[in-house]
Amino acid sequence: MGFSFSSSGRRRRRSTFWRILLLLCLNVGGLYFIYTSRGGIPAMPTLNTPTPMATPTRSAVSFAAEASDLYWEGKLDESIAAYRAALDLEPEQLKLYVALARLLILQGHPEQGLDLAREVLRRDPENAPALAVLCLAYDWLGLPGKAIETCDQAIAVNPSLAEAYAYRAEAYIDVGNWAAANVDIDQALNLDNRQVDVLRNAGYVMEVQGNYSAAIQQYRAALAQHSTLTHIYLAIGRNYEALGRFSRAVESYEAAIEHDPGSVAALDRLGWSYLLQGENEQAEQLLSEALEVEPHYWQALGHLATYHWQRRNYEGSIPLFKDAIRYGEAASRRRTVFFRLTLEPSGQLLTEPTGEELAVGTFLHPSDITYPLRAMLQGRGPYTDLHGYVRLTPVDGRYILKIEGVPDPPDGHGYVGWFEPLLTPEKGTVHTALLRLNTQGVVEDKGATGAVSGPPIEHYYTLALCYYFLDECDEAEPYIQIALRIAPDDANTLQTQQLCQ
Predict the structure, then answer these.
(1) What is the pTM of this model?
(2) What would the DSSP string read from start to end of 134-147?
(3) How far apart are CA 406 and CA 125, in angstroms?
(4) DSSP single-letter state for residue 435
(5) 342 contacts 360 by C-beta, under 8 angstroms
(6) By CB count within 10 A, which of 146, 263, 284, 325 is most buried?
(7) Where is the domain boundary, 228, 258, 284?
(8) Domain presence at residue 472
(9) Quick check: is 237 in a domain?
(10) 92-151: per-residue pLDDT in tens?
Protein backbone atom coordinates (compact mmCIF):
# COMPACT_ATOMS: atom_id res chain seq x y z
CA MET A 1 0.00 0.00 0.00
CA GLY A 2 2.74 2.39 0.88
CA PHE A 3 4.74 1.29 -2.18
CA SER A 4 1.80 1.80 -4.43
CA PHE A 5 1.36 5.37 -3.12
CA SER A 6 4.95 6.31 -3.57
CA SER A 7 5.08 4.84 -7.05
CA SER A 8 1.99 6.72 -8.24
CA GLY A 9 3.39 9.97 -6.77
CA ARG A 10 6.61 9.69 -8.79
CA ARG A 11 4.63 9.17 -12.01
CA ARG A 12 2.62 12.38 -11.40
CA ARG A 13 5.75 14.44 -10.72
CA ARG A 14 7.41 13.13 -13.92
CA SER A 15 4.28 14.01 -15.98
CA THR A 16 4.21 17.58 -14.56
CA PHE A 17 7.90 18.14 -15.33
CA TRP A 18 7.51 17.22 -19.01
CA ARG A 19 4.46 19.43 -19.41
CA ILE A 20 6.36 22.41 -17.99
CA LEU A 21 9.33 21.70 -20.21
CA LEU A 22 7.07 21.49 -23.28
CA LEU A 23 5.44 24.85 -22.43
CA LEU A 24 8.85 26.50 -21.99
CA CYS A 25 9.97 25.21 -25.38
CA LEU A 26 6.82 26.55 -27.03
CA ASN A 27 7.31 29.98 -25.41
CA VAL A 28 10.95 30.17 -26.49
CA GLY A 29 10.02 29.13 -30.00
CA GLY A 30 7.33 31.76 -30.20
CA LEU A 31 9.67 34.50 -29.01
CA TYR A 32 12.30 33.41 -31.52
CA PHE A 33 9.70 33.57 -34.32
CA ILE A 34 8.70 37.12 -33.31
CA TYR A 35 12.37 38.16 -33.09
CA THR A 36 13.27 36.86 -36.53
CA SER A 37 10.09 38.07 -38.25
CA ARG A 38 10.35 41.65 -36.85
CA GLY A 39 14.09 42.05 -37.09
CA GLY A 40 14.81 42.13 -33.34
CA ILE A 41 13.41 41.80 -29.85
CA PRO A 42 10.15 43.74 -29.46
CA ALA A 43 9.91 46.41 -26.77
CA MET A 44 7.91 45.23 -23.76
CA PRO A 45 5.23 47.59 -22.50
CA THR A 46 5.73 49.17 -19.11
CA LEU A 47 2.93 48.46 -16.67
CA ASN A 48 0.83 51.35 -15.40
CA THR A 49 2.38 53.80 -17.94
CA PRO A 50 -0.21 55.44 -20.21
CA THR A 51 0.62 55.62 -23.91
CA PRO A 52 0.94 59.29 -24.97
CA MET A 53 -1.67 60.66 -27.31
CA ALA A 54 -0.47 61.42 -30.84
CA THR A 55 -0.07 65.17 -31.40
CA PRO A 56 -0.85 66.67 -34.81
CA THR A 57 1.98 68.33 -36.78
CA ARG A 58 1.49 72.09 -37.13
CA SER A 59 0.63 73.33 -40.58
CA ALA A 60 2.04 76.24 -42.54
CA VAL A 61 -1.35 77.96 -42.23
CA SER A 62 -1.06 77.75 -38.44
CA PHE A 63 2.42 79.28 -38.41
CA ALA A 64 1.38 82.01 -40.86
CA ALA A 65 -1.62 82.93 -38.69
CA GLU A 66 0.62 83.05 -35.63
CA ALA A 67 3.10 85.25 -37.52
CA SER A 68 0.33 87.69 -38.41
CA ASP A 69 -0.88 87.82 -34.81
CA LEU A 70 2.64 88.41 -33.53
CA TYR A 71 3.12 91.21 -36.03
CA TRP A 72 0.01 93.00 -34.77
CA GLU A 73 1.28 92.53 -31.22
CA GLY A 74 4.50 94.31 -32.24
CA LYS A 75 6.67 91.20 -31.72
CA LEU A 76 8.49 91.39 -35.04
CA ASP A 77 11.33 89.02 -34.18
CA GLU A 78 8.88 86.32 -33.12
CA SER A 79 6.76 87.03 -36.19
CA ILE A 80 9.81 86.58 -38.41
CA ALA A 81 10.55 83.22 -36.77
CA ALA A 82 6.94 82.07 -37.34
CA TYR A 83 7.04 83.10 -41.00
CA ARG A 84 10.27 81.15 -41.43
CA ALA A 85 8.63 78.08 -39.89
CA ALA A 86 5.67 78.44 -42.27
CA LEU A 87 8.01 78.69 -45.26
CA ASP A 88 9.89 75.59 -44.17
CA LEU A 89 6.61 73.70 -44.49
CA GLU A 90 5.22 75.48 -47.57
CA PRO A 91 8.14 76.89 -49.62
CA GLU A 92 5.83 77.60 -52.56
CA GLN A 93 3.72 80.19 -50.74
CA LEU A 94 4.99 83.40 -52.34
CA LYS A 95 2.90 85.69 -50.10
CA LEU A 96 4.85 84.40 -47.11
CA TYR A 97 8.14 85.41 -48.75
CA VAL A 98 6.85 88.93 -49.33
CA ALA A 99 5.55 89.33 -45.77
CA LEU A 100 8.78 87.98 -44.29
CA ALA A 101 10.94 90.17 -46.56
CA ARG A 102 9.11 93.31 -45.44
CA LEU A 103 9.54 92.49 -41.74
CA LEU A 104 13.23 91.72 -42.17
CA ILE A 105 13.75 95.11 -43.81
CA LEU A 106 11.88 96.91 -41.04
CA GLN A 107 14.00 95.06 -38.46
CA GLY A 108 17.19 96.32 -40.07
CA HIS A 109 18.06 93.37 -42.31
CA PRO A 110 17.36 94.71 -45.82
CA GLU A 111 19.94 92.38 -47.36
CA GLN A 112 17.93 89.35 -46.26
CA GLY A 113 14.69 90.96 -47.41
CA LEU A 114 16.35 91.54 -50.78
CA ASP A 115 17.17 87.84 -51.15
CA LEU A 116 13.59 86.79 -50.36
CA ALA A 117 12.00 89.33 -52.72
CA ARG A 118 14.32 88.23 -55.52
CA GLU A 119 13.31 84.61 -54.90
CA VAL A 120 9.64 85.53 -55.39
CA LEU A 121 10.42 87.37 -58.61
CA ARG A 122 12.45 84.44 -59.91
CA ARG A 123 9.23 82.42 -59.76
CA ASP A 124 6.78 85.23 -60.61
CA PRO A 125 8.49 88.17 -62.39
CA GLU A 126 5.33 90.34 -62.31
CA ASN A 127 4.52 89.99 -58.63
CA ALA A 128 3.77 93.63 -57.76
CA PRO A 129 4.01 93.31 -53.94
CA ALA A 130 7.39 91.58 -54.30
CA LEU A 131 8.60 94.30 -56.66
CA ALA A 132 7.52 96.95 -54.14
CA VAL A 133 9.33 95.21 -51.27
CA LEU A 134 12.42 94.79 -53.46
CA CYS A 135 12.24 98.55 -54.10
CA LEU A 136 12.20 99.15 -50.33
CA ALA A 137 15.17 96.80 -49.83
CA TYR A 138 17.24 98.53 -52.50
CA ASP A 139 16.60 101.92 -50.94
CA TRP A 140 17.52 100.76 -47.43
CA LEU A 141 20.69 99.21 -48.87
CA GLY A 142 21.79 102.54 -50.30
CA LEU A 143 20.66 102.02 -53.90
CA PRO A 144 17.85 104.58 -54.27
CA GLY A 145 18.24 104.78 -58.04
CA LYS A 146 17.74 101.04 -58.36
CA ALA A 147 14.84 101.32 -55.92
CA ILE A 148 13.07 103.89 -58.10
CA GLU A 149 13.44 101.66 -61.17
CA THR A 150 11.97 98.70 -59.28
CA CYS A 151 9.05 100.68 -57.88
CA ASP A 152 8.36 101.88 -61.43
CA GLN A 153 7.97 98.23 -62.41
CA ALA A 154 5.66 97.54 -59.47
CA ILE A 155 3.43 100.49 -60.40
CA ALA A 156 3.37 99.40 -64.05
CA VAL A 157 2.08 95.98 -62.95
CA ASN A 158 -0.39 97.37 -60.38
CA PRO A 159 -1.06 101.14 -60.60
CA SER A 160 -3.27 101.02 -57.49
CA LEU A 161 -0.62 99.56 -55.14
CA ALA A 162 -0.26 102.30 -52.53
CA GLU A 163 2.92 100.86 -50.98
CA ALA A 164 4.77 101.11 -54.29
CA TYR A 165 4.18 104.89 -54.43
CA ALA A 166 5.13 105.23 -50.75
CA TYR A 167 8.38 103.29 -51.18
CA ARG A 168 9.22 105.26 -54.32
CA ALA A 169 8.61 108.49 -52.39
CA GLU A 170 11.13 107.30 -49.80
CA ALA A 171 13.68 106.60 -52.55
CA TYR A 172 13.03 109.98 -54.22
CA ILE A 173 13.55 111.82 -50.93
CA ASP A 174 16.83 109.93 -50.43
CA VAL A 175 18.17 111.18 -53.78
CA GLY A 176 17.06 114.71 -52.97
CA ASN A 177 14.12 114.90 -55.38
CA TRP A 178 11.68 116.41 -52.89
CA ALA A 179 9.11 117.43 -55.49
CA ALA A 180 8.75 113.89 -56.87
CA ALA A 181 8.65 112.50 -53.32
CA ASN A 182 5.79 114.81 -52.35
CA VAL A 183 3.80 113.86 -55.46
CA ASP A 184 4.27 110.15 -54.80
CA ILE A 185 3.39 110.29 -51.11
CA ASP A 186 0.22 112.26 -51.88
CA GLN A 187 -0.74 109.60 -54.43
CA ALA A 188 -0.08 106.84 -51.88
CA LEU A 189 -2.25 108.59 -49.28
CA ASN A 190 -5.04 109.06 -51.83
CA LEU A 191 -4.97 105.33 -52.57
CA ASP A 192 -4.82 104.18 -48.93
CA ASN A 193 -4.50 106.61 -46.03
CA ARG A 194 -4.76 103.85 -43.43
CA GLN A 195 -1.89 101.64 -44.58
CA VAL A 196 0.89 101.68 -41.96
CA ASP A 197 3.81 101.80 -44.40
CA VAL A 198 2.18 104.62 -46.36
CA LEU A 199 1.77 106.69 -43.20
CA ARG A 200 5.29 105.86 -42.01
CA ASN A 201 6.77 106.97 -45.32
CA ALA A 202 4.68 110.14 -45.24
CA GLY A 203 6.32 110.89 -41.91
CA TYR A 204 9.75 110.15 -43.35
CA VAL A 205 9.22 112.47 -46.31
CA MET A 206 8.25 115.26 -43.90
CA GLU A 207 11.17 114.48 -41.59
CA VAL A 208 13.85 114.69 -44.30
CA GLN A 209 12.44 118.03 -45.41
CA GLY A 210 12.86 119.33 -41.85
CA ASN A 211 9.15 119.50 -41.04
CA TYR A 212 9.51 117.53 -37.81
CA SER A 213 6.15 118.44 -36.30
CA ALA A 214 4.32 117.29 -39.44
CA ALA A 215 6.42 114.13 -39.46
CA ILE A 216 5.39 113.34 -35.89
CA GLN A 217 1.73 113.76 -36.86
CA GLN A 218 2.11 111.26 -39.71
CA TYR A 219 3.96 108.80 -37.49
CA ARG A 220 1.22 109.07 -34.88
CA ALA A 221 -1.34 108.39 -37.60
CA ALA A 222 0.58 105.19 -38.34
CA LEU A 223 0.44 104.26 -34.65
CA ALA A 224 -3.31 104.82 -34.70
CA GLN A 225 -3.48 101.94 -37.19
CA HIS A 226 -0.90 99.75 -35.44
CA SER A 227 0.00 100.89 -31.95
CA THR A 228 2.76 98.37 -31.16
CA LEU A 229 5.36 98.95 -33.90
CA THR A 230 8.70 99.76 -32.30
CA HIS A 231 10.24 101.44 -35.33
CA ILE A 232 7.43 104.03 -35.40
CA TYR A 233 8.08 105.00 -31.78
CA LEU A 234 11.78 105.30 -32.57
CA ALA A 235 10.99 107.60 -35.51
CA ILE A 236 8.84 109.81 -33.27
CA GLY A 237 11.60 109.98 -30.67
CA ARG A 238 14.13 110.90 -33.35
CA ASN A 239 11.98 113.82 -34.46
CA TYR A 240 11.42 115.03 -30.91
CA GLU A 241 15.20 115.06 -30.48
CA ALA A 242 15.50 117.16 -33.64
CA LEU A 243 13.04 119.61 -32.05
CA GLY A 244 15.08 119.64 -28.83
CA ARG A 245 12.23 118.09 -26.85
CA PHE A 246 14.27 115.41 -25.15
CA SER A 247 11.71 114.51 -22.49
CA ARG A 248 9.17 113.67 -25.20
CA ALA A 249 11.86 111.69 -27.05
CA VAL A 250 12.48 109.67 -23.89
CA GLU A 251 8.75 108.96 -23.61
CA SER A 252 8.71 107.59 -27.15
CA TYR A 253 11.75 105.40 -26.59
CA GLU A 254 10.29 104.09 -23.32
CA ALA A 255 7.05 103.26 -25.15
CA ALA A 256 9.07 101.35 -27.74
CA ILE A 257 10.73 99.29 -24.99
CA GLU A 258 7.38 98.72 -23.30
CA HIS A 259 6.06 97.13 -26.49
CA ASP A 260 9.30 95.32 -27.30
CA PRO A 261 11.55 94.92 -24.23
CA GLY A 262 14.21 93.16 -26.31
CA SER A 263 14.57 95.90 -28.92
CA VAL A 264 18.28 96.68 -29.04
CA ALA A 265 17.62 99.79 -31.13
CA ALA A 266 15.17 101.17 -28.55
CA LEU A 267 17.52 100.45 -25.63
CA ASP A 268 20.36 102.12 -27.50
CA ARG A 269 18.37 105.23 -28.45
CA LEU A 270 17.00 105.65 -24.93
CA GLY A 271 20.47 105.22 -23.43
CA TRP A 272 21.94 107.77 -25.85
CA SER A 273 19.15 110.23 -25.09
CA TYR A 274 19.86 109.95 -21.37
CA LEU A 275 23.57 110.46 -22.04
CA LEU A 276 22.85 113.64 -23.99
CA GLN A 277 20.91 114.92 -20.97
CA GLY A 278 23.70 114.05 -18.51
CA GLU A 279 21.85 111.10 -16.94
CA ASN A 280 25.04 109.01 -16.97
CA GLU A 281 24.05 106.14 -14.69
CA GLN A 282 20.83 105.39 -16.56
CA ALA A 283 22.64 105.77 -19.88
CA GLU A 284 25.31 103.22 -18.96
CA GLN A 285 22.73 100.73 -17.73
CA LEU A 286 20.60 100.92 -20.88
CA LEU A 287 23.55 100.79 -23.28
CA SER A 288 24.94 97.77 -21.43
CA GLU A 289 21.52 96.09 -21.67
CA ALA A 290 21.49 96.73 -25.41
CA LEU A 291 24.85 95.02 -25.79
CA GLU A 292 23.67 92.07 -23.73
CA VAL A 293 20.89 91.62 -26.29
CA GLU A 294 23.22 92.07 -29.28
CA PRO A 295 26.95 92.25 -28.46
CA HIS A 296 27.89 93.39 -31.98
CA TYR A 297 25.42 96.29 -32.18
CA TRP A 298 27.90 98.90 -33.26
CA GLN A 299 25.79 101.96 -32.47
CA ALA A 300 25.51 100.95 -28.79
CA LEU A 301 29.23 100.14 -28.72
CA GLY A 302 30.00 103.65 -29.95
CA HIS A 303 27.60 105.29 -27.51
CA LEU A 304 29.00 103.34 -24.55
CA ALA A 305 32.53 104.25 -25.68
CA THR A 306 31.48 107.92 -25.66
CA TYR A 307 30.14 107.48 -22.12
CA HIS A 308 33.55 106.24 -20.95
CA TRP A 309 35.32 108.97 -22.96
CA GLN A 310 33.29 111.66 -21.19
CA ARG A 311 34.37 110.19 -17.86
CA ARG A 312 38.02 110.20 -19.05
CA ASN A 313 38.20 106.44 -18.90
CA TYR A 314 40.35 106.23 -22.01
CA GLU A 315 41.44 102.63 -21.40
CA GLY A 316 37.78 101.63 -21.26
CA SER A 317 36.86 103.67 -24.33
CA ILE A 318 39.48 102.23 -26.68
CA PRO A 319 38.21 98.64 -27.04
CA LEU A 320 34.62 99.86 -27.34
CA PHE A 321 35.46 102.38 -30.08
CA LYS A 322 37.53 99.78 -31.92
CA ASP A 323 34.65 97.29 -31.82
CA ALA A 324 32.18 99.99 -32.88
CA ILE A 325 34.34 100.75 -35.91
CA ARG A 326 34.96 97.09 -36.70
CA TYR A 327 31.32 96.03 -36.56
CA GLY A 328 30.07 99.27 -38.10
CA GLU A 329 32.26 98.64 -41.15
CA ALA A 330 31.18 94.98 -41.13
CA ALA A 331 27.53 96.10 -41.23
CA SER A 332 28.30 98.15 -44.34
CA ARG A 333 30.01 95.20 -46.02
CA ARG A 334 27.08 92.94 -45.20
CA ARG A 335 24.87 95.17 -47.32
CA THR A 336 26.91 94.69 -50.48
CA VAL A 337 24.48 93.70 -53.24
CA PHE A 338 26.34 93.40 -56.54
CA PHE A 339 29.79 92.48 -57.82
CA ARG A 340 30.60 93.81 -61.28
CA LEU A 341 33.56 93.10 -63.54
CA THR A 342 34.46 95.94 -65.89
CA LEU A 343 37.20 96.79 -68.37
CA GLU A 344 39.03 99.96 -67.28
CA PRO A 345 42.05 101.97 -68.44
CA SER A 346 45.28 101.13 -66.62
CA GLY A 347 47.01 103.63 -64.37
CA GLN A 348 43.97 105.75 -63.53
CA LEU A 349 42.53 106.60 -60.13
CA LEU A 350 39.14 104.89 -60.12
CA THR A 351 36.15 105.80 -57.97
CA GLU A 352 33.25 104.51 -60.10
CA PRO A 353 32.96 101.94 -62.92
CA THR A 354 33.13 103.66 -66.29
CA GLY A 355 34.17 100.92 -68.71
CA GLU A 356 32.44 98.01 -70.42
CA GLU A 357 30.70 95.58 -68.07
CA LEU A 358 31.63 91.93 -68.67
CA ALA A 359 29.90 90.16 -65.77
CA VAL A 360 27.71 90.73 -62.76
CA GLY A 361 26.66 88.71 -59.73
CA THR A 362 24.26 89.25 -56.84
CA PHE A 363 25.43 88.39 -53.34
CA LEU A 364 23.49 86.06 -51.06
CA HIS A 365 23.41 87.12 -47.41
CA PRO A 366 23.55 84.49 -44.63
CA SER A 367 21.92 85.39 -41.33
CA ASP A 368 25.15 84.80 -39.37
CA ILE A 369 27.35 87.91 -39.56
CA THR A 370 30.52 85.81 -39.43
CA TYR A 371 29.67 83.91 -42.63
CA PRO A 372 30.95 85.22 -45.97
CA LEU A 373 28.70 86.69 -48.64
CA ARG A 374 28.75 84.73 -51.91
CA ALA A 375 27.96 85.72 -55.47
CA MET A 376 28.02 83.62 -58.63
CA LEU A 377 29.17 85.61 -61.67
CA GLN A 378 27.76 85.26 -65.17
CA GLY A 379 29.03 86.96 -68.30
CA ARG A 380 26.89 89.55 -70.07
CA GLY A 381 26.41 90.38 -73.73
CA PRO A 382 29.12 88.73 -75.84
CA TYR A 383 30.83 87.27 -72.76
CA THR A 384 28.43 84.39 -72.07
CA ASP A 385 31.32 81.94 -71.53
CA LEU A 386 32.57 84.00 -68.61
CA HIS A 387 31.67 82.64 -65.17
CA GLY A 388 33.03 82.56 -61.65
CA TYR A 389 32.41 83.36 -58.01
CA VAL A 390 33.24 85.92 -55.30
CA ARG A 391 33.29 85.54 -51.52
CA LEU A 392 33.40 88.51 -49.15
CA THR A 393 33.82 88.20 -45.38
CA PRO A 394 32.08 91.17 -43.71
CA VAL A 395 33.99 91.30 -40.43
CA ASP A 396 37.50 91.70 -41.87
CA GLY A 397 36.68 92.69 -45.47
CA ARG A 398 38.70 89.89 -47.06
CA TYR A 399 37.56 88.58 -50.42
CA ILE A 400 38.40 85.74 -52.77
CA LEU A 401 37.41 85.61 -56.44
CA LYS A 402 37.90 83.31 -59.37
CA ILE A 403 36.66 84.07 -62.88
CA GLU A 404 37.08 81.82 -65.92
CA GLY A 405 36.61 82.51 -69.61
CA VAL A 406 38.03 86.05 -69.42
CA PRO A 407 39.45 87.31 -72.73
CA ASP A 408 42.80 89.08 -72.92
CA PRO A 409 42.30 92.82 -72.31
CA PRO A 410 43.37 95.30 -74.95
CA ASP A 411 46.64 97.18 -74.45
CA GLY A 412 46.49 99.83 -71.75
CA HIS A 413 43.46 98.25 -70.07
CA GLY A 414 42.69 95.78 -67.33
CA TYR A 415 39.83 94.27 -65.42
CA VAL A 416 38.45 95.67 -62.15
CA GLY A 417 35.89 94.17 -59.76
CA TRP A 418 33.41 96.47 -58.01
CA PHE A 419 31.49 95.87 -54.75
CA GLU A 420 28.22 97.84 -54.92
CA PRO A 421 26.98 99.86 -53.07
CA LEU A 422 29.91 99.47 -50.66
CA LEU A 423 31.76 102.79 -50.37
CA THR A 424 35.23 103.85 -49.32
CA PRO A 425 35.58 106.55 -46.63
CA GLU A 426 35.85 109.06 -49.51
CA LYS A 427 32.47 107.79 -50.85
CA GLY A 428 33.89 106.06 -53.92
CA THR A 429 32.78 102.53 -54.77
CA VAL A 430 35.03 99.85 -53.26
CA HIS A 431 36.89 97.91 -55.94
CA THR A 432 39.73 95.46 -56.47
CA ALA A 433 43.12 96.34 -57.81
CA LEU A 434 43.69 95.76 -61.52
CA LEU A 435 43.09 92.04 -62.08
CA ARG A 436 45.44 89.94 -64.17
CA LEU A 437 44.86 86.73 -66.14
CA ASN A 438 47.00 83.66 -65.69
CA THR A 439 48.19 81.53 -68.59
CA GLN A 440 44.88 79.61 -68.63
CA GLY A 441 42.84 82.80 -69.02
CA VAL A 442 41.62 82.66 -65.41
CA VAL A 443 41.47 85.55 -62.97
CA GLU A 444 42.24 84.56 -59.38
CA ASP A 445 42.63 87.17 -56.67
CA LYS A 446 42.67 87.58 -52.91
CA GLY A 447 42.47 90.91 -51.16
CA ALA A 448 40.65 93.11 -48.68
CA THR A 449 38.35 96.10 -48.97
CA GLY A 450 40.19 98.08 -46.30
CA ALA A 451 38.29 100.76 -44.39
CA VAL A 452 34.78 101.42 -45.67
CA SER A 453 32.14 104.06 -45.08
CA GLY A 454 29.82 103.42 -42.16
CA PRO A 455 30.70 104.56 -38.64
CA PRO A 456 30.68 108.33 -38.04
CA ILE A 457 33.89 110.34 -38.17
CA GLU A 458 33.60 111.04 -34.42
CA HIS A 459 34.43 107.42 -33.66
CA TYR A 460 37.75 107.66 -35.47
CA TYR A 461 39.10 110.93 -34.15
CA THR A 462 37.85 110.32 -30.59
CA LEU A 463 39.58 106.94 -30.57
CA ALA A 464 42.73 108.70 -31.77
CA LEU A 465 42.39 111.22 -28.92
CA CYS A 466 42.13 108.37 -26.42
CA TYR A 467 45.46 107.08 -27.66
CA TYR A 468 46.91 110.61 -27.53
CA PHE A 469 45.99 111.04 -23.87
CA LEU A 470 47.65 107.70 -23.15
CA ASP A 471 50.78 108.89 -25.01
CA GLU A 472 50.31 106.29 -27.77
CA CYS A 473 50.12 108.43 -30.90
CA ASP A 474 51.56 105.65 -33.07
CA GLU A 475 48.33 103.76 -32.39
CA ALA A 476 46.28 106.87 -33.14
CA GLU A 477 47.72 107.58 -36.60
CA PRO A 478 45.73 105.00 -38.64
CA TYR A 479 42.44 106.33 -37.26
CA ILE A 480 43.45 109.93 -37.93
CA GLN A 481 44.16 109.02 -41.54
CA ILE A 482 40.75 107.36 -42.00
CA ALA A 483 39.03 110.38 -40.44
CA LEU A 484 40.89 112.63 -42.90
CA ARG A 485 39.67 110.43 -45.75
CA ILE A 486 36.09 110.92 -44.54
CA ALA A 487 36.41 114.70 -44.22
CA PRO A 488 39.83 116.25 -45.01
CA ASP A 489 38.80 119.63 -43.53
CA ASP A 490 37.25 118.36 -40.30
CA ALA A 491 38.47 120.65 -37.52
CA ASN A 492 38.45 118.02 -34.76
CA THR A 493 40.46 115.60 -36.84
CA LEU A 494 42.99 118.23 -37.83
CA GLN A 495 43.40 119.28 -34.21
CA THR A 496 43.93 115.67 -33.17
CA GLN A 497 46.55 115.27 -35.87
CA GLN A 498 48.30 118.45 -34.69
CA LEU A 499 48.31 117.23 -31.08
CA CYS A 500 49.98 113.99 -32.05
CA GLN A 501 52.53 115.72 -34.26
Answers:
(1) 0.83
(2) HHHHHHHTT-HHHH
(3) 30
(4) B
(5) no
(6) 263
(7) 228
(8) yes
(9) no
(10) 888 998 999 999 999 889 999 999 999 999 999 999 999 999 999 999 999 999 999 999
